[in-house]
Amino acid sequence: IPRGTRVLSVVFDDAGGAYVDFSREFVSEHPGGSTGEGFTIRSIVGTLHRNFPDVERVQFLVEGREIESIAGHYDAGEPFEVSQFGE
Hints:
By secondary structure, the chain is of the alpha+beta class. It has three helices and five strands.
C-alpha cells in the first residue's frame, strides 16, 4: 500500500461485502505494475477475510468514489471476490 495512503472508512454490509475507502494516495502514489497491483489487492482482501471471515467480496473506493483500477491492470469497478483474491 503506497506511503501516505489513509483508510478513510471500512463499511460492511449484510451480504458479505466490505467497502474500503482510501485516500487518493492509494492510486496516485501506487508504484504500478501488474505484480504490485495484484499484491496490493490480495493483501487487503486476504487481511479483511482473515479478520472478518464473513467477508466474501471487497470493493475499493477512493475518497468515496468507485475507481476503475488501482494501477491499470485489474478491474476495480466490481468488488474483488475472496475466492479469487483472498485465500
